[in-house]
Fold:
Amino acid sequence: MSRIVFVGSRPVLETGNSSLELPSGGRLEEALGAARLAASRVNVEVRGQDGALVDVHVLADVDIEVVESSGLEVLPLRAAWRDLEPDDFRIVGTARQKADWVLTHRFCSRCAAPTTLDPETEGLRCSECSQVHYPRVAPAVIVLVQRGREALLGRSPRFPEGVYSTLAGFVEPGETLEECVHREIEEESGVRVQNLRYFGSQPHPFPHSLMVGFIADWLEGDLCIDPTELADAQWFDVDELPLRPHPRSIAFRLIADFEQRVRG
Structure:
């Protein structure tokens, strides 16, 4: 049986030959015990690469050292994102988001009655008022702003030293994606943009975002960064690009696309 186990929000993984791997169901049962796994199962539907259902377990009362003493690893989700195979991480990320949804919506926010999974809507339905609660997805835009041979890149105080990325921000209620691009870029950097082009999207389970990528051209304005959002922002020539985010990120792909387009 396929299983994904979390200790809190951290997945339990195994070190493979060259990267992290998802442990087999038998390996997890051997390390954690069948009774503990049965008690920690979350009633949520997640499917593996073969389309088969995957059991999801969230352990809240297990010492990480106990798990790791069996040879398994308990790592932050971002570490799994860096080192798991992309298809495996997609399953882990989906499981984390759905498990978090179920565990934080056990009671209705309208009337406080218990909720149960509704197979017809694939939501959590209130047992009293019939309100249906769906998994939360928070859309955010992420934008490569171009000015000729230059790209506008910024860095958050949380970034590793020297790493710069494309600018991003969450969509507000009642706002279109395009309106969000204009607002966020001007708020964070002080510049205005034009000629928006859709680039692509990426699920971003940290914890429940959807990143929607755009390319935009500089219209006017000098850099004037918002220090509550960015530690720094600069225009970088294509031949002098700084360190970039992780290669699996849409930010990395936006910068790589800019480089390829400018250099031809």
